[in-house]
Amino acid sequence: MTTLTRAKNEGALAGAAGAFARSRELGVLLAFLLLLIVTVSQNPLFLFGPDGPRDLLLSPAILVILATGQAIVLITRNIDLSVGSVLGLSAWLTGRLFIDFPGIPVLLVVLAGVCFGALLGMVNGLLVAIAKAPALVVTLGTLYAYRGINVAWSHSSMINATQLPHDFLAFGIGTVFGIPSLAIVAVVVLLAAAWYLKNKRGGREFYAIGSDPEAARLYGLNVTRRLLIAFAASGALAGLSGVLFTARYGTIDSQAGSGLELSAVAAAVIGGVAIFGGSGSVWGAGIGALLLVSINRALPLLGIPDFWQQAVVGVLILGAIVLDRILSLRQAHRFTSIRESSHD
Amino acid sequence: MVMSTASMRAEAGDVVLELRGVSKSFGPVQALRDGELVLRAGSIHALMGENGAGKSTIVKIIAGLYQRDSGEFVLGGETVHFRSTADSKQSGIAVIYQEPTLFPDLSVTENIFMGRHLLKSFGRIDRAAMRGHVRRLFQRLGVDIDPDRPAEGLSIADQQIIEIAKAISLEARILIMDEPTAALSEVEASRLFAVARSLRDEGRAILFISHRFDEVYDLCDTITVMRDGAYISTDRIEATTVAGIVRKMVGRDVDSLYPKQTVPIGDVVLKVEKLTSTGQFHDISFEVRAGEIVGLAGLVGAGRSEVARAIFGIDSYESGTVTLEGRVVPRLNTVAAMQLGIALVPEDRRQQGIVLPFGLARNSTLAIKSSLARFGFITNRSENRSAADWLARLSVKANALDTSTATLSGGNQQKVVLAKWLATNPTLLIVDEPTRGIDVGTKADVHALLSKLAGEGLAIIMISSELPEVLGMADRILVMREGHMTADIPRSEATAETVMFSATHERRSAV
Questions:
Q1: Quick one: which of B464, B338, B357 has its CA closest to B407?
Q2: Contact criterion met (CB below 8 Å) for B227 and B249
Q3: Tens digits of per-residue pLDDT, B262-320?
Q4: Torsions phi, psi of B438, nearest 5?
Q5: Residues in B touching A76 (Cβ below 8 Å)
Q6: Which of A96, B154, B349, B418 is an S-S bond match for B353, by CB 3.0 to 4.6 Å?
């Protein structure tokens, strides 16, 4: 009798944990809010200064888009380390197009950046899905290769704001109803990706492939095509990020966006996207990016030395992984006890 | 290529699937020489044969997972060439594999509908409709599984149920079940049979692969027997007997392949008492004497390999003792087991037996590397000397001692693994499926070697799923079924029937 009630209580507890696991996004959001409250209490200007709300939303916009693409690839049990370099190439292309074709419509440049990024992503996809090379190695290779092309193309020169059209730069820092336009783009991208992953067959197949690639083959899913699409999507979003990067900063050299690939992976992992595929959401990755960028901005305001800022990001990643492990162990335990009790 | 289910609705008795002279090789190993199978609508057709008879290869060819090398594959009157599992599915074939293949992270409902989710407007997934569909399916199957829970953590039986639900929801014309009851309880199995019968009465064709005669005779109307990758016979079930089927499954010239010598049996070497590991095996006791080959028979999953791994100290066990020549073998300590004189040649040699890219000499001396080492270093010369000795005794065919093992044939690889363990000078040798995937000639070599080693006083436990091998080589046969020891049969009384009976039935209370 007592064992029965105890088992029930444990079940309820584990059930709550399971519900929490299902809303991993909520946990990251809470962490972000906590950070906001602590920082504002120390330095109200962080949120209530003249540029407070704008900076809070503008700074993470590009990383949110990169993390969304990264999440899609991670969900298929792959990784895309080339996104920083793809961003760099796309940013350089954007600058060149404005310089070489004066008067070119901005929309055409955006389209060119996105398509160019998709093409570069497709190269990754072909090597992974058809040549069956591990994504980690392939995209590490293209990380260097694309950056090398960028250096050769730019001859180590720079493009600066004076060479770019004024309205393009204005868009980069502009707002609509007080909300930064880049943040709006990021939210639209996030919404579209989240909708696709949840409501379309193709989106669900990304999860299936990441959950068990061998089973996906037995189910007759077109794994090759899915992986191509995932890498192309990640590339396209990195390409879009390149255009936005140019609009926002105005100054680009051959090193634009270098190192961002690791931030994108970190944001996704912090947001609860499993590195072994099959679970997580782009929402989590987006909020992870928001948290990551905000921490980097908040810590100096709180007077925390540079060294500790890096360490905090590390702790966040490790914490996210430990939390995942604990939750999955509890879930396994819960299922075992359900099974045992149904056998009695 | 794509045929709609409705237009292909066949009358009971019509031939829906036909394989003629189908063959398939993997490198030098011919898995299927002459596959033949005719499935009719409204029929449950049993496919029987020993492990390695080619049943799974036939299933995988029908499923589109393998492409046949030659032969005819006719489906609904048309010759087909499946390039993927999707092709086979499109043609109305559903396969339930022996091992459930589910997506652990996804919900039960999504597992059933993956790749063909029900849709509503704008191509959106219709979750409510799918959930309702799954509820009705589960009702029909009489199971109570939450459609929204993830597949992770489901018992094997429940996973199997999901596979079956998936196949039924496909509305397949042809349903292939590869040992679907291996993990099911009797209640679950009888529920499955009820579903299978109702599907048959709807005019579908069902192929049922099983080792259990009671099930086959209960459920099926036709039976096809295969042996050594070839078709043997197809009969109406009424025209057959269990003994007759077993003879067809086994029947071959047993004597030449199994050169068993009679040798004097010595003292008890290994004594296993009341060995128990929950969920794996229960209350296992037996003895093995010097010079004796003890066969360990049973179906796949009966717990034979698990007992061997426990004896050797790879896996732990809860209670019981293992003693070798009077000394206790500690649990979970392979190093101690090796030092006491136990050697284990594992089931899966590519994964567990050898380091493929290593050369021959290095592989065959891995197990004794500490005794070869001088001041902690192993010289190539000492390695080669020891290796050459053993490899010559086993007549391994290779050009040089540094040949990479990966390039050797299965038979020669197995000899290298044997050489590795024999170099440790064991008193007890455990071999797990010693001749799986090996050509007949090498098989006879391995058997002759085992027999010779027994003659030299080695105690041998031979785990094998091949009945003739056990019958031909063992002095005594222990049979396991679902973790329990069900029989201990001396060579003189062992027949295919007695062993098979014990492998599929609980121990008779009165012996």
A1: B357
A2: yes
A3: 888 899 999 999 999 887 889 999 999 999 999 999 877 788 989 999 999 988 898 99
A4: -115, 145
A5: none
A6: B349
Question: E-strand spans in B371-427?
Answer: none
Q: What domains, with CATH codes, occur in chain A? A: 22-334 (1.10.3470)
Q: Yes or no: say if B152 and A331 are a contact pair by the CB < 8 Å rule.
A: yes
**DSSP string for residues in A98-113:** HHHSTT--HHHHHHHH
Q: Which residues of A touch B65 (CB under 8 A)?
A: 218
Best mutation site among B89, B109, B114 for testing chain A: the one with the most A CBs within 10 Å? B114
List the end-to-end C-alpha distance of chain A, in Å, as a whole number: 14
Shortest distance between the Cα of B108 and any Cα of chain A, in A, equals 12
Q: What is the CB-side half-sphere exposure of residue B54 using CA atoms within 13 A?
A: 28
- Enumerate long-range contacts of B216-221, CB under 8 Å, 24 or more apart: B216/B46, B216/B48, B217/B242, B218/B193, B219/B44, B219/B46, B219/B193, B220/B44, B220/B45, B220/B46, B221/B43, B221/B44, B221/B45
Q: Which two tokens stand for residue B196?
A: 């299978």
Residue with tokens 């940013």: A91
The values of phi and psi at residue B326, to 5°, are 85, -10
A230 and A119 Cβ atoms separated by less than 8 Å = no
CB contact under 8 A, A207 and B103: yes
Task: Name the E strands within B355-458.
Answer: 428-432
Right CATH for B266-341+426-511 from 3.40.1190.20, 1.50.40.10, 3.40.50.300, 1.10.290.10: 3.40.50.300
pTM above 0.80, yes or no: no
ipTM over 0.90: no
Which residues, at least 6 apart from A270, have a Cβ–Cβ distance to it below 8 Å? Answer: A28, A288, A291, A292, A316, A317, A320
Does the domain at B15-96+175-180+205-250 match CATH 3.40.50.300? Answer given as: yes
